[in-house]
Amino acid sequence: MQAPTDERRDLTGTRMELEVGPVAHGGHCVARWDGQVVFVRHTLPGERVVAEITEGREGDRFLRADAVEVLEAAPGRVEPRCPVARPGGCGGCDFQHASLETQRALLGAVVREQLSRLAGIERDVVVRPPLGEAALDGLGWRTRVTFAAQADGTLGLRRHRSHEIVPLDDCPIASDDLPPVLASRWPASRVTAVAGSDGDALAAAYDVTGQLPVVEATGLLADGATVRGRDWVREVVRDRGFRVSGAGFWQVHPDAATTLVDAVMRAAEPKPGERVVDLYAGVGLFSAFLGEAVGPDGSVVSVEGDARASRDARRNLGDLPQVSVVNGDVARVLARGEAGEQVDVVVLDPPRTGARAKVVRAVAALRPRRVVYVACDPAALARDVRTFAELGYALGEVEAYALFPMTHHVECVATLDLTD
Predict the structure, then answer these.
(1) Is 90 annotated in the active site?
(2) Residue 116: which of 398, 338, 362 has the closest Cα?
(3) Tens of pLDDT along 7-47?
(4) Which residue is catalytic, options 29, 82, 90, 376?
């Protein structure tokens, strides 16, 4: 039986004049056209623009569009620093058309709106820049980039909501310390370039399955040549070194790890002798400093699902006998009681989808005096905060940081305290 066809008119390519409303989560602003909601990229609240529909049909709940002409600009608009950070170009940056101060104001509005709408909490949130000199102009900060390869082996990044690759000669937000992979052709589907804190440079290329590394190299790459070497880089935070294997997870801004460690330690206030659980712990970044704070009479259980990251964590935390590393799915580890039964503090840094209700309930069942939630998605944070509230935890301080300049991503560190 043939599936029914959608006979509603496709509006893609239609242009209209719009009065732009508030910013929304996802790197766009909200406008209305003939009663339909339109999510518009490349614009700012309060502007009047000509927009072109990029996705949608008549009668859809919402449409997507790009602002292709600015008729009345808002304060804070600047000229994008990248030639492909424009309609129809690379989808990596959302806010190159906004000053850094304006970007932080937009991110703060998004966090406030998500907490209000999803958690029922009204909270003024000020988004701060990361620590350090690398935050000053918003460029040259990204120390980990995964490029997509075209059929001829040249590299680029994908268009917004598309598999189409935009070829690149340069990426202004990429660190100058990355290996110059854009200068070479690669027999791969994607190439990840990494620059470590101590000057290491690593490139890993993956075949068409997206799984098997076909090249792992350190050092510089040029004219397709590679220099083989170890497949890990060393990161340094507060004079403490961390091994991170391959393209394993680490914050992509050079000042992000220190910024977040400082925020987590302020929020957790760990005391000597306390019992702490660090969930989604990666290679042990927070576990290390929590372990130092609780001292030899305390304990930290560092839980991570990725086996390679856990192996790195055991190396990174080897000088702290009070820290134990558990490799396994967070929900299962908690269900099995491997995190302990009496806990003073829980720190969790879940993926973009959040911890979700099952993990939140398991954390609350431990009855820690304080939960510190590190979130890279304000919507996921708000949903989990609502669940924590139902289980007796009240939202305290929320620190927010623009650790990904030019993008819509924002990192939050939220404190939740037991109320009963």
Answers:
(1) no
(2) 398
(3) 889 999 999 999 999 999 999 999 999 989 999 999 999 99
(4) 376
